[in-house]
Amino acid sequence: xxxxxxxxxxxxxxxxxxxxxxxxxxxxxxxxxxxxxxxxxxxxxxxxxxxxxxxxxxxxxxxxxxxxxxxxxxxxxxxxxxxxxxxxxxxxxxxxxxxxxxxxxxxxxxxxxxxxxxxxxxxxxxxxxxxxxxxxxxxxxxxxxxxxxxxxxxxxxxxxxxxxxxxxxxxxxxxxxxxxxxxxxxxxxxxxxxxxxxxxxxxxxxxxxxxxxxxxxxxxxxxxxxxxxxxxxxxxxxxxxxxxxxxxxxxxxxxxxxxxxxxxxxxxxxxxxxxxxxxxxxxxxxxxxxxxxxxxxxxxxxxxxxxxxxx
Length: 311
Description:
By secondary structure, the protein is of the alpha/beta class. It has two domains: 2-122 and 238-299, FAD/NAD(P)-binding domain; 125-234, FAD/NAD(P)-binding domain (3-Layer(bba) Sandwich). It has helices at 22-33, 65-75, 142-145, 161-170, 189-197, 245-249, 286-299, and strands at residues 2-3, 13-18, 38-42, 82-86, 89-94, 99-103, 108-116, 121-123, 138-139, 154-157, 177-180, 200-203, 207-213, 216-222, 227-229, 232-234, 238-240, 272-274. A hairpin with a 2-residue loop joins strand 13 and strand 14.
């Protein structure tokens, strides 16, 4: 794996991959093993950097996100056609047969395929005290972190029918779950009955603060002066594309802010593919990101390189 100098210029590549997380590294691995000329661009600011470990990843138990990225990069070392560069894409433009990319280091690139694997921006709710707990005992994905906090006192923050569904999902990991609506509940009596049948309590008091120590949540305080002792909290995040690339390229987005793709990661823009959280509308996990990265890479290769055997 070659590390380019900041001002080096690549005239034409098979693929440029934006993002050096699980999806981007997975795509680079597939393309590099196929001897495609690939450039992986990464800014070194992963969305899950505060997470202590990755859950639900086959063959790995408790591996930290930073360690997985390190191992993934090491796996690319023996692939001479893969290059990694720490730079951001500031502009991109799709033409009939290529995608032109402008980088923050001044380079201008041209590639037959552009893979957007830059993840999403995740913004947790503005709850006082959440920052030191985020990724440690306050989470957004129960399928990623539910097992690690199973059978403990769990809370779900949210309101409306979607929050009801989330609380019911979380109740699969613990018999002690409370739904915190942070104000008057915005769901009907039928929803209350379903929650009650599942053993999920509902508290409607406005939340004033989360308190804990060394990343561990201890309790949730309310405006009434009361509090809820709790070991972990699941919240909904506000998500969006982390940069303006999708807009600049004219890529279609879902109502949830993710890139619209077909089953193989193709966007509506010729030559532009997407993988990982940036293109995943529902279940977001490292395992899923790795799979979508591989799938997009298999769809993205251009014509075989000169001298390659057919078949």
